[in-house]
């Protein structure tokens, strides 16, 4: 090596240095086999994320039905807006008169004794247990087209029967005293009134009969056209018989008059 010129050694050393530099650059610049893929590769996987199915929306909840207005039975003393509707229907069907408030006839919201009694009567006439309270069954029947209007018939009692009997007495169809009991004589008196005034003679005082009997158009018994009945010559009233209610024959009954 001592005989090698210095210039030659310098060139050889420079060449070796250049080779080392190139090797280092190659090592640094060339990609390694275990390196992770570049970010652009991950970006290509984004369609996988977009393919996620859209969540199914929750179903719309079904609205709850409106509760029945008489789900809780209405009793005496309650103050509710629905009472005014009940009263108006009872008035339309003839079961009660308009309440008078401060001198004015008008429906109210108070379920008082008069409303309770009217409901009780309605229940009796419409085959419902008569409690006087207005529950679902009573309310539905009251508001239906099949609701029976008020009428008086055999077995009824009360002030309305007394009023009817008094009117029939005034018109000459009933001769007995007004007792407030709708008995056999009252049935017969009503039938006579209905026949004389062109109504169906069923003996029941329904809305049509009641409206006419209290009107000025009601025909009295002495104005009704009827065929007078006479006993055969020499005959007499059989023992134990009584004069029919409303009769004007003047024959006195020999037995006690039954309750009207």
How would you sum up this structure, described in words?
With 260 residues, this protein is mainly alpha-helical. The protein is built from 9 helices and 2 strands; from the N terminus they run ααααββααααα. The protein has helices at residues 6-29, 39-43, 46-50, 82-92, 113-125, 136-143, 159-171, 184-196, 207-213; strands at residues 100-101, 104-105. It has a two-stranded antiparallel sheet. A hairpin with a 2-residue loop joins strand 1 and strand 2 (104-105). The protein is rod-shaped and about 175 Å long.
What's the helix count? 9
Number of strands: 2
The global form is: rod-shaped
Query: How would you write the strand order of the largest sheet?
Result: 1-2
**Oligomer kind:** single chain
What integer is the average pLDDT?
Answer: 81
- Given as residue ranges, the uncertain stretches (5+ residues, pLDDT < 50) are 227-258
Topology as H/E string? HHHHEEHHHHH
Strand percentage: under 5%
Q: End-to-end distance, in Å?
A: 164 Å
From the alpha-carbon coordinates, what is the Rg to the nearest angstrom? 52 Å
Class from secondary-structure proportions: mainly alpha
Largest sheet: 2 strands, antiparallel
User: Approximately how much helix is present in the residues?
Assistant: 25-40%
């Amino acid at each position: 090596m001592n005989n090698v010129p210095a210039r030659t050694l310098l060139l050889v050393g420079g060449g070796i240095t250049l080779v080392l530099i190139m090797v280092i650059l190659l090592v640094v610049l060339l990609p390694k086999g275990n390196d992770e893929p570049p970010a652009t590769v991950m970006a290509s996987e984004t369609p996988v994320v977009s393919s996620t199915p859209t969540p199914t929306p929750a179903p719309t909840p079904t609205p709850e039905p409106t509760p029945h207005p008489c789900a809780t039975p209405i009793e005496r003393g309650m103050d509710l807006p629905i009472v005014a509707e009940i009263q108006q229907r009872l008035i339309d069907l003839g079961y009660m008169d308009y309440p008078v408030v401060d001198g004015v006839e008008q429906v109210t919201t108070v379920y008082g004794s008069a409303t309770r009694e009217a409901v009780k009567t309605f229940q009796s006439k419409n085959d419902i247990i008569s409690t006087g309270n207005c529950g679902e069954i009573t309310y539905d029947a009251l508001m239906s087209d099949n609701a029976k209007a008020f009428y008086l018939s055999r077995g009824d009692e009360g002030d309305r029967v007394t009023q009817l009997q008094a009117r029939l007495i005034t018109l000459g169809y009933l001769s007995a005293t007004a007792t407030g009991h709708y008995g056999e004589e009252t049935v017969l008196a009503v039938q006579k009134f209905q026949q004389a005034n062109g109504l169906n003679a069923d003996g029941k005082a329904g809305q049509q009969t009641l409206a006419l009997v209290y009107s000025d158009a009601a025909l009295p018994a002495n104005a009704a056209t009827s065929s007078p009945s006479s006993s055969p010559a020499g005959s007499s009233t059989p023992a134990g018989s009584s004069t029919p209610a409303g009769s004007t024959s003047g024959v006195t009954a020999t037995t006690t008059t039954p309750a009207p």
